[in-house]
Amino acid sequence: MIRLKGKKAIAIITMAAFLLTMLPAFVLASTPAKYVLTLSPTTVRPGTTATLVSGSVVDIYGNKGVVNIVYTTPAGTSDTLTATLADGTFAKNYVFGQEGDYAFQATDGIDVSNVVYVLSRYEYTPDARGSYKVGDTSVILGGTIKGLPAGRQMVLKHESVAGVYYTSAVTDTGRFAISVPVFTYAGTYALGTANTDGNSFVKYEEITVAPQALTVTADKTALTGGSFDNNVTFTAKPAVTVANGTYYFEFSGVKIDQSSVSGTIYGSVIDSTYYTKVAVADSDGVLNLANLKVLDTSGTLTVKAYYQKDAVDFANGLYADNAELLGTLNIPVNPAAKVNVFTNVTSLAADTTTTLAVYVKDVNNKVYGDTNSTLKDVKVTVTGPDVNASDSNKAEYTFNINPSQAGDVTVTVVATLTDNTQETKTLTIPVDGLKATLDAATVANLVYGATVTPKVTVTDKNGTPINNATVTISGPYSGTVDGKITNIVNGQYNFTSGALTDVTNFVVNVVDPSGKKARLTYPVLGSNVYTVTPEKATLIAGYDTEVSFTVKEGAYGVTDNVNVAYTDLNGINQTVNGVTYINGKYTISLGSLTKAGTINFKVISTDGKKYGTFAVTVKLPVIKVFAPADGILTDSQKEAVSYAVYSPVDNKELTANTTVTFSVYDNSATFGVYDLNDNTLKTVNGNTYLISGASATVKVIATKASTYKFDGKLELLVNGIKVSELTVKPAVLTVNKTEVAVGSDNAVEATLKDAHGNPIKDATVTLNGTGVALTGTTDADGKVIFTVMPFATGKIVVDAPAYANITKPEITAKFVVDDKKPVITIEAPVTTDKETVDVNIKVTDEGKVAGLLVNGQRIELVAPMVEVNKVVTVTLKEGKNTITVEAADVAGNIATATSDVTYNKPVVTTGDKYSKYVGQMVKLTYSKTNLRVAPNGKLLVTLQKGYKMRYLGREGVWNKVRVSIWTKGGYKTYTGYIYDPYFWALTNA
């Protein structure tokens, strides 16, 4: 065996390691064929003789000899050429008698080469080609082909649809022109030569015909997975008008419950329960699936819509590649939330009684009362124009509602789960119809015996005046104005003057010719003979929910039941009938007060002929938001939000219960709310959380919808009052380099910070691409270091999967010449009184350290590494010692570093019971406590039983010692005090 020393040895070791590293890649890339065959020429004219010449029929193991070259003609017959390959080359004359493709392959026993095709073609020059699509008419595909014999013609035919066939004769000059009246089918067409009977076709080129664009949309942006009912409508809208054909909607990507898809179905049922791919035929391009059940809890539903005039052959999958129109749509399937709400209707009509069914299901698709249902308590409230209903704790909720005007009906579900967390879900159902208003003067004068001149304004839902409706008023005043007879301008219907003859309700009914309606109802009051005094003249929004008052008629108190009418802060007329006199006053509930303003009340006798008025002022509390100060929430990261509430009257902090609401007001994000113990309270689209005491902190995790183009926005409301707008911004992921070298180790440092610029700890960061698939976890500085060795050029994507919407840096892997030397760091004491010293050596190199010498002695490495940490024991001579470290990387770059250590021979001391272990590795034992190394009184580390270290001896004081212990980066020497000296001992390691 030859032994090499010094730099030459390191260099040879480096190259050997490099070759061993590269050998598997070379073996994988090699061809299984024994020969590599290359022929010239590769294109000939039919009926001519060509000399086949090769310089590449080569046995890769170095053998040469007789090789058979088997060829196959266009007619399918085969024959063999024999070539003696004394020098690895051959030449052979061959007559190419037919038009078509000849296949040649070298063989030798079971070893074969690649197949080389020689194309036997007539001289063909096509005219300039454009791009083609279904519906293109009068298309001429021309060109020149020279030498085509009699009995042959030019042919264009569809490669997958039989019977789609066009021909053209060839003129004496070789010109041809194939005329296509209209491209009816999409797909690939082959243009070539054939006999006049269509046989012996030879392809010269391909023509691609694309389908026309078909826009596919859905009325939902996402579906709920896990067997939930999804009411969804898909619409396929063509760019051009089409007729006499059929639309097909193909679904794939997730499992679909078989029973939830109706219509003419194409596809195979898996396990008799679900489809993995299914197509539904449809006549008008609008497919409504009322109860689509998606069995996968997450994924993407791919909807491919196409239009076909002819019958579709579904033999090869479902999609017909010759479709006339084609479009696709991807819809995400999201896991079911803890609480899921569905309704039987998606729209309502004004002034029309409708049965509204509301279904509330938990994450397992179970309703309240089902076995193992997580729904512990459920309350459903339905509100809208003259709609206010609620019900609790049922499997199905049914409400007969009659919204009075166009607008929205809101379904609110507040559910308490078995883990005692609370979820709030809302659904908004549009109300189609008209909107009507009565002029303010008439509303203010609705008093028994008064004369009114009503004016009713009618618009559609968007505020556009309606001039052709019929408006009828009934009750104490009656009259009708017909817009089809009377000329109405700007939707205003004017009635004649008349007296209010009783105290029944004043009712306005509106209907237009299309049947859309609106309804208004107002109470008519009696005479003003009551004096009403409120208990509190000022109410605090978000805290006060009731108003109390006393009533007098003259000097006498009124104790009979009364009715109360008022317009709330949202402009909605409210009536509370039969208010009872209790404990010296009347009290009515105002519900949640969310804004400032003045509320005017009318207290009315039950017969409607007496009334009095009073007013209260509503003021907003003073709410201070302390965090986050910059108004930002980091996307996908839990963050604390704190606030406090003060009275607007005396500026004292309010300690009553506070309800906190987070809402997504621009449909851009979803979020969860947690209490300080991280118990989940809410995961989607708005939540209320009851907190004892005003000062509070909650934690929020928000995620912006990926399809939304702008930053997500969340509103923080305290007792219904907006106090802060929080912007959801993504975390920031960066890397320290944009390029890495192929075939070498590269140190890549990724840093993850939140939207405030603070590092994120314990986050998962991934690198994927060009054979790289790495995962790491960030440290306290938000950093993680990867050793990256790509095997091919390309892109490596850096991602933090738990953080949505981040910008994912890309690193380019490319071939790089490594001319950088390794970096050497030496840690050794300047002086020592020991004959040996432990030297901590750290070597780093992006291309991997392959060799290491210390004072000329080779240090074994397990394998080349980006970073090497070694502790080497060096024997010293008395006086100054120079320690020399040499390191080489896999590219052969060599670096040198030195460090000086002075050895002062110590004066022999006594009293160290462990002096025999000085300079040796020892093992720590103990009976009652651990051994702690604490230099300068500051705890450095607590050593556990069985810990191995190098003992360097006592330093004059019974409890002061020197030890060499392992820390990150290698062994380091520390002088410190040993505590608890009676309960530990050292033994041989």
From TrEMBL:
UniProt-listed SMART domains: BID_1
PROSITE patterns recorded: BIG1 (PS51127)
All copies of domain Big-1, residue ranges: 723-816
Annotated SUPFAM superfamilies: Invasin/intimin cell-adhesion fragments
InterPro entries, alphabetized: Big_1_dom, Ig-like_fold, Invasin/intimin_cell_adhesion
Similarity comment text for this entry: Belongs to the intimin/invasin family.
Protein name: Big-1 domain-containing protein
Organism: Carboxydothermus islandicus
